[in-house]
Amino acid sequence: MKYPVLGAFILTLLCQFTASAQAVKSSRPASSVSHPARKKTPVAVAPTPAPAQQPVPNWLPSTNPVQPAATILHDLVDTKLDVRFDWAKQWLLGTATLTLRPHFYPQNQLVLDAKGFDVKSVELLNGVKKGRDLKYSYDKKKLTITLDRQYPRTEQYQVRIQYVAKPNELPKGGSEAITEDKGLYFINPLGTNKDKPRQVWTQGETEGSSCWFPTIDKPNQRMTQEISLTVENGFKTLSNGLLVSSRRNSDGTRTDVWKQNLPHAPYLTMLAAGNFAVVTDTWRGKPIEYYVDPPYQYTAKQVFGNTPEMLDFFSKKLGVDYPWEKYAQVAVHDFVSGAMENTSASTFQQQLVQFNSRELADISYEPESVIAHELFHQWFGDYVTTESWSNLPLNESFADYSELLWAEQKYGADAAALVQQTKLRNYLEEAQMKREPLIRYRYANREDMFDRHSYDKGGRVLHMLRKYVGDDAFFTSLNRYLTQNKLSSTELAKLRIAFEETTGEDLMWFFDQWFLQRGHPELRVTHSFENSQVVLHVQQVQDTLYQPVYRLPVTVATWNGGQPTEHRILITKADQTFHLPVNQRPNLVKFDHEGTLLAQVDETQTQEELLYQLSHARGYLQKYAAIQGLRSKTADLTVSSAFRNALSDPFWATRVAALDGLRRYRGAEGSAVRKDLQRVALNEKKGVVRAAAISVLSSFQNEDFSEVYAAALKDSSYLVVGAAVDALSKAPTAATRTQVAALQETKNSALLTALSNYYGLNGTLDDYSWFLRRSQDAPAEVLYVMLENFGTLMQRMPPIEREKGIQRLETLARTHPQMYVRLGAYKGLHQLTTSMPTLKPILQDIRNKEKDDSLKSMYSLIQ
Q1: Residue limits of the Peptidase M1 membrane alanine aminopeptidase domain (predicted)?
Q2: DSSP string for 616-657
């Protein structure tokens, strides 16, 4: 399913309002850099003070109704669609021919999902061109058709429905993960926006397909498919399967016919049409295509170009070759989520490819995570599909875990460890507010399943399972699961059975505690040395009223002479002591030394152990943990020296963590530290590390690094330029304004965010028009920060000058489709209430009319 980029950002915002979130944030890697391609979050988020009032975590068992898989009365066998568009009215004019059969019991009635249609006719075909009219009733949601007789399960039948789909007349829905759910979207339909192309595209998950064609819109249905798509001649089209024919029509249109021969679930049906450039590639003779706006056709392969290698890697790893006829990836404007794994044709938000060559140098392998995620869904989600949304992690956990698998394969163990760390952090942030089982048979809304539990927690659970059974057994089990359940729907028990049949071990304990129970272990770990033994004390301190006491296989490493010895232990109790044999007092004892556990671990270590860990650790996670444990000790010469040495670590994220550990350094090595920071800022090869060095330099108040900042303003990396602008915003010089003004017209999100921060803090009335203008063309991920900074600027302006800015903020707070943009606009307005109390009723009215409950909760905390 779609990459839940929006949900992650909302989660971050919620955590900003809690004091407990600050502890989590303090342990984040300073290397975390958000990119629009990866998630719809701003590159930099202005800090928000935690108010006195805090949200109350909800960890109680759900009282929502049980949500079973849909009862199957009919099997969808095949769907044929003939569609064209009325662009002016934003309608789809369609004819659907459905082939079905009763699933088991004889049926004389068919109920289809069909939302907001004008139904013109319903006919029984059964293989003849001229159909027989059937009686039907329609309530704008369900189309109930009375068949001509009762059909047994051995007999297929065909119905043809002529209809008009009117998606814009549907009630507005959506969720944090999918901002709208109307299924069919017209972008710039009349061509009035010169900065945006005309496009039409669909988004089916969860039940959006029935907004544009009649179907049984449930994930436990499967059908073959053919779509005849009539568009104007200049458009390129895309759908599932292969393009089998294309003919020009006398009215200046063209009809493309796309056919998919293997069955898939209705929610995976897609179409897209627009003025795309199509960049072609190949893998084992199958066509691979990248659909992008024409200006980005020359950089498309830099973004998508590893797709054939991914196809090869995943096919070999799973022992199941990519199963579909082709693989296409299309980037569309205003997509309602991060990305979507439609069968053989994934859709991505435009931000994934909207990079010039200079920007591509900054984004590292971030977009590849999204590409890998959606590609892995072609096996887990498309080839084998969850039978119900309660079992969604059977789709999403695997797609999430593919990001680690690809990072490990392409970029090495440290890159995979960074994925592991980031994903664990994402889940733990969400777990501050809610704790749910991964497989949730109780939910209020199926969209609630698209959260950091289904994605990030699920991926970490799979990582633990892999480490427990071993790589050979893990991937053999996945092969068994895929081959036994291919082209069908599945549930958790089938995954468990595949692992049990492979390993010969009863794994109910693992699947029960990790998939069916809520929460995670919270561990306190201490150790001592006694009588040639390490005495390891482990306590599970989580609240066990609604969370289990976990069974945890863990590896503990004891280090001597620069070499580790591994000890496997099994934790089964809330309070447990282990005795590990050693020849002498170890230099280091490291619990869960590979960072496998999905847990919060409070491990007591001495400064000497942490220093040893930093210098001897073989992986990023251990080095990062050591740096975090030593941050408060940087005044110690041995610690600051260790951090300076870490600035040369082979892995960039370790270097960034070491830089952040030197922030506001006040120790005896002050001069040497500052020289090292300036050297990194000017000479480091990786832009994100140079940017981090500049950020750390700016933490030294009343110190002049203007020469470094001036050089950084000319850097090839936008991240570095943005960091320099942020640094100068704290200590502007006489030349700063002219230097910054030269960057005003940038389209880069990182730099645009930094400029809004600069003008928010240092701008004058002369910069008012810049905010008015750029708030019209800034990406949504920038607007959240920009609008709050706009409010900061207006606080310093005469009230009589603020009218246009207030109108802009109010309009965006009321109407912008992205909730985090509405939040940014609201916060911008709120800053003005001290000097303009007349705005308070407007803010109250905005709160009262807001329909998003999570946003309402955040509004209530802004005081």
Answers
A1: 306-514
A2: H--SHHHHHHHHHHHGGGTTSHHHHHHHHHHTT-SSHHHHHH
In sequence order, what E strands does 269-338 have?
271-274, 277-283, 286-292, 327-332
Using one digit for the tens of pLDDT, what is the confidence trace for 180-192? 889 999 999 999 9
CB 556 within 8 A of CB 567: yes
One-character DSSP codes across 726-780: HHHHHS--TTHHHHHHTTTT---HHHHHHHHHHHHHH--GGGHHHHHHHHHHS-H
Phi, psi of 851 (to 5 degrees): -100, -15
Using a pLDDT cut of 70, give the percent of the chain over it: 93
CATH 3.40.605.10 describes domain 71-266? no
801: tokens are: 């000058």
Residue partners of 313: CB distance under 8 A and separation at least 6: 405, 406, 409
412: left (phi over 0), alpha (psi -120 to 50) or beta: left
CA distance 642 to 649: 11
How far, in Å, CA of 396 to CA of 391, rounded? 9
Contacts of 440 (CB under 8 A, 6+ apart): 62, 67, 390, 448, 449
Per-residue pLDDT, averaged over 325-349, amounts to 96
Domain 522-597 fold:
Immunoglobulin-like (2.60.40)
Count CB-CB contacts under 10 A for residue 23: 10
Query: Which amino acid is residue 846, in one-letter code?
Result: I
CA distance 247 to 670: 73
CA 219 – CA 536 distance, rounded (Å): 48
Are 740 and 755 in contact, with CB atoms under 8 Å apart?
yes
Distances (CA, A) of 14 to 19, 49, 56, 782: 11, 12, 11, 18
Listing DSSP states for 191-207 in one string gives S--TTS--EEEE--TTT
Instruction: Specify the CATH class of 1-67+276-344+357-511 in words.
Output: mainly alpha
The neighbouring-strand residues paired with 530 are: 533
Q: Specify the pTM.
A: 0.93
E strands within 139-193?
A: 142-151, 157-165, 184-187
DSSP code at position 551: P
Query: Which pLDDT tens digit goes with each residue over 476-521?
Result: 999 999 999 999 999 999 999 999 999 999 999 999 999 999 999 9
Tell me the Cα Rg of the chain: 28
